[in-house]
């Protein structure tokens, strides 16, 4: 199932004009405040009328349908639960309101989001994270053909956020519907996104698979230097109980990571911010850093500031590193050159390691 949209709408002085496709999985819409992300999600859900265009979900044209007939689940920043009903009541109500029976059974949704122990509670007796899980359960039980998640974790503190992320990863990996996701958090985007649409002033400026966008020097002005980097998917190949380090294999080599909760054989995905990679022209010796690998420079991009973004390829994986213009000139960096990248194992934030 996928979503194709072509939306034109005007609100006051703001114009949203966007064409995009969201395949099954998570498509993150990322952009500055006021770029139109919420308006876009609301238009998909039928909460905002479009002036012209088309919204097609799984082959069905939804453009003229009212919100309650679009089968779009919507999750807001704040969970909106019915306060007078228990968690069970909230979930059953959402299921009843759905247009048809959800492909996942009630029990599957309870298991997926681990809601079993919460069923008898009222919304007041839930933590923010628990309430958001229940709200997500409600959205799933309404048998959606598409899910819109508008900054669903932004009201939660860091600890809670990291406890909920695995649920969203599980949902992403087990569902075949498009999930439109808005966040301002680069780490959250790197963990969840299959696709990314970068937005500015009501338009899409760049879009594509997450790995390609995050390591594209052209995306850096829109992502910000801190968000730019490399997302690598791979598998845990070994864990060393004495050092606490784990080895991850990826298309291009191996990386040594800090201790992981994931067991051997599990798929993981990690993010290496561009600013955490050091480059060398020759293979360094006697280093304390554990990860050194060879690559070929594919792009060099000097921005407005003092930095140069260097994209290089190791195996089939594209990496992005940020060096100063001074270093770039001193090292004589050029496209096609062989370089060595150095990454400390501690550069990987264990909380940022997902599946
Ligand atoms: N009904 C309206 N009338 C006038 N302007 C509107 C209306 N609705 C939205 N806007 C404007 O449209 C622009 C986009 O708003 P939107 O909430 O979609 O942005 P956003 O990217 O989600 O921002 P944020 O990241 O801050 O949530 C804003 O400038 C907003 O003020």
Automatic annotation (TrEMBL):
<dbReference type="InterPro" id="IPR008995">
    <property type="entry name" value="Mo/tungstate-bd_C_term_dom"/>
</dbReference>
<keyword id="KW-1003">Cell membrane</keyword>
<dbReference type="InterPro" id="IPR003439">
    <property type="entry name" value="ABC_transporter-like_ATP-bd"/>
</dbReference>
<dbReference type="InterPro" id="IPR004606">
    <property type="entry name" value="Mop_domain"/>
</dbReference>
<dbReference type="Pfam" id="PF00005">
    <property type="entry name" value="ABC_tran"/>
</dbReference>
<keyword id="KW-0472">Membrane</keyword>
<keyword id="KW-0997">Cell inner membrane</keyword>
<dbReference type="GO" id="GO:0016020">
    <property type="term" value="C:membrane"/>
</dbReference>
<feature type="domain" description="Mop">
    <location>
        <begin position="286"/>
        <end position="352"/>
    </location>
</feature>
<dbReference type="GO" id="GO:0140359">
    <property type="term" value="F:ABC-type transporter activity"/>
</dbReference>
<dbReference type="GO" id="GO:0016887">
    <property type="term" value="F:ATP hydrolysis activity"/>
</dbReference>
<dbReference type="InterPro" id="IPR003593">
    <property type="entry name" value="AAA+_ATPase"/>
</dbReference>
<feature type="domain" description="ABC transporter">
    <location>
        <begin position="2"/>
        <end position="226"/>
    </location>
</feature>
<keyword id="KW-0813">Transport</keyword>
<dbReference type="GO" id="GO:0015098">
    <property type="term" value="F:molybdate ion transmembrane transporter activity"/>
</dbReference>
<dbReference type="InterPro" id="IPR027417">
    <property type="entry name" value="P-loop_NTPase"/>
</dbReference>
<keyword id="KW-0067">ATP-binding</keyword>
<keyword id="KW-0547">Nucleotide-binding</keyword>
<keyword id="KW-0378">Hydrolase</keyword>
<dbReference type="InterPro" id="IPR050334">
    <property type="entry name" value="Molybdenum_import_ModC"/>
</dbReference>
<dbReference type="Pfam" id="PF03459">
    <property type="entry name" value="TOBE"/>
</dbReference>
<keyword id="KW-1278">Translocase</keyword>
<keyword id="KW-0500">Molybdenum</keyword>
<dbReference type="InterPro" id="IPR011868">
    <property type="entry name" value="ModC_ABC_ATP-bd"/>
</dbReference>
<dbReference type="InterPro" id="IPR017871">
    <property type="entry name" value="ABC_transporter-like_CS"/>
</dbReference>
<protein>
    <submittedName>
        <fullName>Molybdate ABC transporter, ATP-binding protein ModC</fullName>
        <ecNumber>3.6.3.29</ecNumber>
    </submittedName>
</protein>
<dbReference type="GO" id="GO:0005524">
    <property type="term" value="F:ATP binding"/>
</dbReference>
<dbReference type="InterPro" id="IPR005116">
    <property type="entry name" value="Transp-assoc_OB_typ1"/>
</dbReference>
């Amino acid at each position: 199932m996928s979503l194709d949209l072509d939306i034109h709408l005007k609100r006051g002085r703001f114009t949203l004009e966007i064409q995009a496709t969201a395949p099954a999985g998570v498509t993150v819409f990322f952009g500055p405040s006021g770029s139109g992300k919420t308006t876009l999600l609301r238009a998909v859900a039928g909460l905002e009328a479009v002036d012209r265009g088309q919204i097609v979900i799984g082959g069905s044209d939804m453009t003229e349908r009212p919100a309650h007939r679009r089968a779009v689940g919507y999750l807001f920043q704040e969970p909106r639960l019915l306060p007078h009903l228990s968690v069970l009541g909230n979930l059953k109500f959402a299921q009843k309101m759905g247009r048809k029976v959800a492909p996942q059974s009630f029990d599957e949704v309870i298991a997926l989001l681990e809601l079993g122990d919460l069923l008898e509670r009222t919304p007041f007796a839930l933590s923010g994270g628990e309430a958001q899980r229940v709200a997500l359960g409600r959205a799933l039980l309404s048998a959606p053909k598409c899910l819109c998640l508008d900054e669903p974790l932004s009201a939660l503190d860091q600890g809670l956020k990291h406890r909920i992320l695995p649920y969203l990863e599980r949902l992403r990996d087990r569902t075949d519907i498009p999930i439109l996701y808005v966040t301002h958090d680069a780490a959250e985007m790197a963990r969840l996104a299959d696709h990314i649409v970068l937005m500015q002033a009501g338009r899409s400026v760049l879009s594509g698979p997450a790995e390609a966008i995050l390591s594209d020097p052209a995306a850096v002005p829109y992502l910000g230097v801190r968000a730019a980097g490399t997302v690598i998917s791979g598998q845990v190949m070994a864990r060393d109980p004495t050092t606490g380090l784990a080895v991850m294999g990826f298309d291009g080599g191996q990386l040594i990571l800090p201790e992981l909760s994931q067991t051997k054989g599990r798929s993981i995905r990690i993010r290496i911010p561009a600013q955490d990679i050091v480059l060398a022209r020759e293979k360094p010796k006697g280093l304390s850093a554990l990860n050194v690998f060879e690559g070929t420079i594919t792009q060099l991009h000097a921005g407005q500031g003092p930095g140069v973004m260097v994209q290089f390829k190791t195996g089939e994986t594209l990496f992005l590193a940020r060096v100063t213009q001074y270093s770039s000139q001193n090292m004589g960096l050029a496209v096609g050159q062989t370089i060595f990248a150095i990454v400390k194992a501690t550069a990987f934030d264990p909380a940022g390691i997902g599946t």
